Amino acid sequence: MNIRNNDRHNLWQEWADKYARRVRKITENPNPKMARSNALLYQILYDQATKEAEYSTEGSPIPVVYHTENAPDRFFRSMGFRANNLELNADHLSREQVGRYLNIGREFGYPDNICDRVKLAHAIGISGDVPAPIMVVPVVGDCDLMSQAMCSVARYWNVPAFGIDMPYQEELDMGPDEYLDAMKYIKQQLLEFIEFCEKKWPDFIKFDAEKLEEYQRINREYTRAAADVIELAKTKPCPYSGRDALRMAPTQVPDDRRVIDYMKQYVSEFREKAKRGESPLKDNIEKFRVYWMCSAPFYYDPFTFLEERGCASPLYEEESGIPHRYNVMNSESGERRFGRRMLDPLEEEAALFATHHWGASGNRRILEVLDNCRKVGIEGIIHFELEGCLSLNNIARITGERAEKELGIKNFYYLSAHCQDIDKWDEADFEEKLGDWLEMCLREKGF
Ligand code: SF4
């Protein structure tokens, strides 16, 4: 099957149009329960999408590398690539867009009961709807299903796949020496990656350490501002909605300094709301608070359902402000883990892989989750796992057991579902079951 011969869509243009609509809506008719600073975020994403849309129609001398979420975008950009994060692309598909890519996935041979992110990232990767890559970078040891999908995309385009291997070790056996060894092992691969690319594309690709340092500085400032989100999350009633908590750090625009302003605006507007005791909760009364884990249904808003019943979702597993994400040197775990600061930009980049939330035994994730639960006073956990996810298989149960044993959090709600495939969603069934669970939690608290 050659998708490239079929009709093509300019996916970046469709995203640019979507972001333009969102900026307009927030500016002209904002939802008082949602962050106004989202207008700036969507403006940044609009600018990126517009540029990429132009490249899609007119071409560009700047070559594209496809990668997955946990390969740092900024590293590729510091070498002169344009970077396309297929995993985020899959998450950003709107309801109107998603059917096309689910069908491409089906035609390719994916069964329906496999993780949406994997099959959609793969489908976009082979669709020809975003500019073709000259290379694909899977990250081995994070999500192996996604790595396999990325190797398949590379074969489709007949371009090199350069795997970056995260060394796998039991988290509980890792001290500073093991962390440093892991960092050095990954740094060596980054050096090999640079050497390979500079030799293969000498006219385009040259690693620029200063550029990487600049992107890391932007990220550090962003992370510093985002750290206050965890402080805000401790406030009751929680001043922001679960939908806003769901927003991840915009790592796909690592070169745009405006992301720092966006995060500062986000924190400042919710700090003001917290002072006034405002929240998206019914009557501003918080009865219960949950940690929303893994993913979410992007075609449906479960948070308003919870908020109307007095349940706040102050934390999402991947949200901005969650410690241990995307920044090593200034995160609270960096020096503790390595015993020293990182000495150069490549060490910092390698350390990012070495400390990744998903890149070790389940214990790393569980320790981080329990730590965040403690900080924010979590009372229940909702584990929205994607159907067909191999990486999370069984961790949910162990996370629930540990949360109960170590923190006394006995309310754990597990569901395995699809984040993008709306045809598999039964809203009535979901609301009935979640509603029953929440009622039970509230009863236990005397409501
Ligand atoms: S949800 Fe699971 S299978 Fe899907 S991309 Fe994430 S880790 Fe991989």
Task: Give a nutshell description of this structure.
This protein has 447 residues and is an alpha/beta fold. The protein has helices at residues 11-28, 38-58, 73-77, 86-92, 95-108, 116-127, 144-157, 176-200, 209-233, 242-245, 258-276, 302-307, 334-338, 345-354, 362-376, 395-407, 427-444; strands at 64-67, 82-85, 135-137, 139-140, 164-165, 288-294, 311-316, 380-386, 411-417. The radius of gyration is 21 Å and the shape is globular.
| Count of discrete alpha- or pi-helical segments spanning 4 or more residues | 17
Largest beta-sheet characterization: 4 strands, parallel
First CA to last CA: what distance? 58 Å
Give the helix level as a range of percent: 40-55%
Mean of residue pLDDT? 92
| CATH overall fold name of the largest domain | Rossmann fold
- Which spans of ≥5 residues are poorly predicted at pLDDT below 50? none
Radius of gyration: 21 Å
- Write down how many β-strands occur, each being a DSSP E stretch of 2 or more residues: 9
Number of self-contained structural domains: 2
Write out the strand line-up for the largest beta sheet, numbering strands in chain order. 7-6-8-9
Note down, in words, how this protein is organized.
The protein is of the alpha/beta class. The chain folds into two domains: 11-169, Rossmann fold (3-Layer(aba) Sandwich); 215-444, Rossmann fold (3-Layer(aba) Sandwich). Helix content is 52%, strand content 9%. It is built from 17 helices and nine strands. It has helices at residues 11-28, 38-58, 73-77, 86-92, 95-108, 116-127, 144-157, 176-200, 209-233, 242-245, 258-276, 302-307, 334-338, 345-354, 362-376, 395-407, 427-444, and strands at residues 64-67, 82-85, 135-137, 139-140, 164-165, 288-294, 311-316, 380-386, 411-417. The strands form three sheets. Strands 7-6-8-9 form a four-stranded parallel β-sheet, sandwiched between helices. Strand 4, helix 7 (144-157) and strand 5 form a beta-alpha-beta unit. The radius of gyration is 21 Å and the shape is globular. The mean pLDDT is 92. Iron/sulfur cluster (SF4) is lined by residues 115, 117-118, 143, 145-146, 386, 389-392. Iron/sulfur cluster is lined by residues 115, 117-118, 143, 145-146, 386, 389-392.
